Every structure is written in C-alpha cells, then in structure tokens.
C-alpha cells in the first residue's frame, strides 16, 4: 500500500511540475512578440561587417525552423502557412533578381558589392519575410502595447535631448559615445535645433514613431483597439511634436496623412451628416496648423531664434551636390534621378545590384536616389520593381491605402526599406493583421452559413 501511495504522489508531483513548465513555456512564447517589437524599435542596433544584428533575430530564425519542422516532418499546414509561402515566393524572386543584377555588374564591370547585397537585399528582404510569417502565427496580441511603446520611444528621445549630460550611458549605448565619428557635433545630434533621435538619423527615428502610429490607427479602424479621446488627442499631439522637433519633411507629411485617415475613420464610425463631417475635418486641420505654429514658436524662443531658421531651411533647401554644396527645393529624389537613370540603363531588366566603384555610372550606390522605387529600379531593374509592386499590393489587401504611406513619404528625402528595424516591425504587424483578416473572414462565413 505504501508503494502504491508513493507512486501516486510521484505521479501527482510530476504532473504539477509538467503543468508548471507548460505554463512557463506559454508565458515565454506569449511575451516573445512584445520583446521582438521592443528590440526592433527601442533597443540599439549592433553591426558585424555591415550586417545589422539584434537579439530578436533569433526569434525569427527559431520560428522559421519550427515552420520547416511543421511542414516537412509533421506535415501540418494552415491558411497562414499558405500566405507565408505565397509572399515568400515574391520575396525570394526579388532577391534572386537582385542577385542576377549583382552577378551581371561583377562580370561586366568587375564591381564587387556582395556585402552590400547581403545587407540590403538578402538580409533585409529575407528577415522581413520571416517577420511577416511570424506575425501570421501570433494567436493573440494586445494592440495597446503599441501605445506604450510609442510613449517610451518619445520619453527616451526627450531624455537624450534634454538630459544627455546626466545620462552618458544612454549616449554610449545608442551612439557609441559623443566622440563617435558619426557624431562630430554632439550639440547638433542631441539638441533642440534638430535632434537625430535614437538611431542616428532624424528621418529614420521619426519613421519608427510614425510606423507605430500607423498600426495604432489601423487597429482603431478595425475596432480591435479601444482608445479614449484624451489618449488619442495626447498621442496625436506628441506625434506632431516629435515630427516638428526632428524637422523631418517626409515624416511630417506622413504624420499629416495618418491624421487625415484617422479623422476619416472616426467620422465614418459616427453616424453624422456630410455637413457636420466637413466642419469637423476643417476644425481638425485648423487645430493642427495652429498646434504646429505654437510648437515652432516656442521651440524658436527656447533656441534663441535658431530653430525657425533651421526649420525653414529644411523645407526650402536641400543639397544637390554634397561636395559642391549647391541648394535647391526639397524634391530630393528627382535631383539624383539622372544618376539613378544612368545606372539603370546599364541593365534595365535585372538591375545592377549594390556595387560601387570609380567607373561611371557606378560612383554611387543604388540608395543614392533617396527613393525606394528608384533604389529597386537601379538594383533589381524593371523585373524587380514589378515584383516589389506586387508585394505592396499584398500589403494593400491587408490594410488598405494607409499601409502604403511609408513607402511613398519616406522616399521623398530618405528611405523606408533601408530602415531594417522598421521594415521588420512593419511586416510583422502586416502578418498580424493578415491573420486577423483571415479570422474575420472565416467568422463572417460561418455566420452566413448559420443563417
């Protein structure tokens, strides 16, 4: 009898231990998506031979091996798997076309650019694909977490600007120290004149915040995130405050477009007449302009008049040639269009990859055009651009026109696909919304069948 009792106690303890481990594993896997977002948007990026590195990349690699195991060993497939495979075909096709362009320019001009190809094409597109696939398999996600991340991002940036003397460890963590070669002027980098933000470039830093704002709006539109009015107003205020502080031309345009979409979604949810909607939109636009004027005025006072001069200069002038120092209007991509065009016509079908040399017209890399479409056209040719447009169409089917804004506004003076952490976060969220859309479609289909 004692032996039987001991066996029962042993089985009971084993079951309790198994349940405890199962619960711990559940919480670990539950928290991984949130760690992925924090790592991409809040923690600094490290580099090894030009290849960016973050700890959360192991999450994507681990998920991909689990995906292969489910497909090849367990022979389990789902709708999310098919979405991942179809988008994966497009991304791999784009990488292959760029690879052909890289081979072409290597054999005909002996231009080597394999490191740049590994970072800009192989790594960026492949991990964007993994991020999408990982997102499509997230069963539950708290979208309110995005609001918390946005505020932490804003607070960190303001701490770096206002109190960087008291937080040297943050400066060293994100910039490698004030004496870093990329920070020849710490006053410029960490000041109210034009802060570079957490990631070394004001446009990149604001692009991260705007992308968070994008998916908050999308969650609000789909009624999977409930936001109080005061939360929404304060969030919009700080988004525009940071856009003005960074003096980011393309991202200020993006913030304005996101606000217009947000206003439209709010008014669409309320049953009101067209006349009332028009009045509310006009009031919102007027309030936005007034808010921007007040922000610029006070920042100018704080900086002794230097801020307004810098702000106006950013919107009216841009370098045509960085060595000569000439200026023109801010249509920056079109100023370098002829450089892009001269490179494109050397191999219009598959592009010329990412190599750089002293041979005309390869003095500048494909990102020189400061436009994602010019960049793909130059590096992957017409075939690559067509594949990229199909990928964007897939994103459009998930979230509508609003999800295409980053690829157009960021291309005005900088790039979106060159900002790898934001790209990974973007496709991760597209994956989550893709799963939500699938679930919503199935629920509507079941409801119709029950009727």
Write the layout of secondary structure elements.
Blueprint: H1 2-41, E1 46-48, E2 51-53, H2 57-72, H3 79-109, H4 114-136, H5 144-162, H6 168-175, H7 186-189, H8 202-221, H9 229-246, H10 249-269, H11 274-302, H12 306-316, E3 318-319, E4 327-328, H13 332-335, H14 337-344, H15 372-399, H16 405-409, H17 420-450
Antiparallel strand pairs: 1-2, 3-4
Helix pairs in contact: 1-17, 2-4, 3-4, 3-15, 4-17, 5-8, 8-9, 8-10, 8-17, 9-10, 9-11, 11-12, 14-15
By helix and strand content, what is the structural category? Answer: mainly alpha
Spatial extent as radius of gyration: 25 Å
Averaging pLDDT over every residue, what do you get?
77
Globally, the shape reads globular
Instruction: List the secondary-structure elements in sequence, H or E.
Output: HEEHHHHHHHHHHHEEHHHHH
Poorly predicted runs are: 1-11, 13-26, 177-189, 319-329
Largest sheet: 2 strands, antiparallel
The helix fraction, in percent, is over 70%
Beta-strand content bin: under 5%
Counting DSSP E segments of at least 2 residues, the number of strands comes to: 4
Walk across the major sheet and give the strand order: 1-2
Task: Tell me the count of domains.
Answer: 3
Summed up, the helix count is: 17
N- and C-termini, Cα separation: 59 Å
